[in-house]
Hints:
Radius of gyration: 31 Å
Largest sheet: 7 strands, mixed
Number of helices: 17
Number of strands: 15
Strand content: 15-25%
Helix content: 40-55%
Distance between the termini: 131 Å
Structural class: alpha/beta
Amino acid sequence: MKANIEILITTFYLSALLFPGAALAQTPSPSVAPRMKAIVYHNFGSPDVLRLEEIEKPVPNDNQVLVRVRAASVNPLDWHYMEGTPYIGRILFGFGLLKPKDTRLGVDYAGTVEAVGKNVTQFKSGDEVFGGKNGAFAEYVCVLADRAVVLKPANLTFEQAASVPIAAITALQGLRDKGKVQPGQKVLINGASGGVGTCAGQIAKSFGADVTGVCSTRNVDMVRSIGADHVIDYTKEDFTKSGQRYDVVLDNVGTQPLLGFTRVLKPERKYVLIGGGGPNDGRWVGPMARPIKAMVLSRFVTQEMGMMMAELNKKDLTILADLMQTGKVTPVIDRTYPLSQVPDAIRYLEEGHARGKVVITLKDTNETSPVGANVAEGSVNTTGPVLIVLEFIAVVIGVTIVPIVVALALNRRFQRRNPGKRPYRWGYYFSVMSFIAAMGLAVILCGVGAAIVCGLIYAVLAWFFAQRHHWAWITLTIFSFNPAAWVINFIYLWKRWAEDSGATATI
Length: 507
């Protein structure tokens, strides 16, 4: 019997040595990291690049809370990041040059606290909260407890709370901080039926202002129902020619010429541009062109014209929560989509006709992947990013190297024709740079037609400038609108004039 037991033991160990996989298969596998569903994108482009994928579920650190997202909302910010536009944002705002730096979308969310870090005291598991955090189009987000997250008012649904953060904070900060709205003042809201507009009208009323909303025919009743004292249907009336004057204009859509707003603003009052932009804005500078125009125009009019960008913070979210708790602000929701239909939600928002907010619901997470998830990685068109990089390189070369080369070439030509005269490299360089800057600014501010006219004017000035005509030197220096160039040219050209005068006297 003992011999038989020894044979069985020997056989078992030999099997373990010869077939380790079989032995290992009997041991329990280590626990797999929890997963969640989220919208991700790995390339810039249309909503078709968005995919519903399973990714690792976040784990809160000592200062964070883990929130199970019940609802999220869509903002223009989302399509700018998705498309990587304006292109200048890929460098200045960290979109990523060829591919997205952050592959997650969504900011606004509302949900339930599932876990808290050991240092968190203001929240506990089960609390209903809302706020802003990158990557909100997902089943879970981890947020710092001392940042943009607050308790959700009990009288709001998750969908209503999720529609608030960016839109309502933009409206609040635009009216309170930038517009300085006071009780009794007259406030005009251009684009009163959109996400920011519906919040702005109600917030302005809570400040005691007299509110006029501008919207299309189908939204007139809705804008009036949320508190506007007067509603203008822009399809029937041009409010810039109405003769009415306002203390503050909050422009959410940027459809009217800026000069028109100077006619409806009282002297020394404020025009506030909200920087959302639209999908049809220029690909290079996008919504940044209009703020530049406003900044330039502000120097020539009595009104203050400028742009503002919202800053998510806990203090303002708390103020908004109080306004909603007391019924002074009621979120307006146009449509809701499940998580799998985020691409459709963004397409609808891009059309520019949403009434209030577009919301994403996460009540049922057993969803199928969107069409974009079935696109093979190899089928993604990489021509666009390559062309963008080439355009960036061309712009850099055109602005830095080309003017130097042209200036040196022109100066060499001048010295060959005028032996013995002092070189004129800075003059040629300045004239070329003035021409390039004028062309670029004209394209941004006024379009191609203005660029052609402006280019011809500056080209003529640059030509006479290069011929050392004093009147052209003065004119082009002034038209550079650059104080640094004024100082440099005053010193440089004064020396050149003295040299020319000395040479003439000698002759």
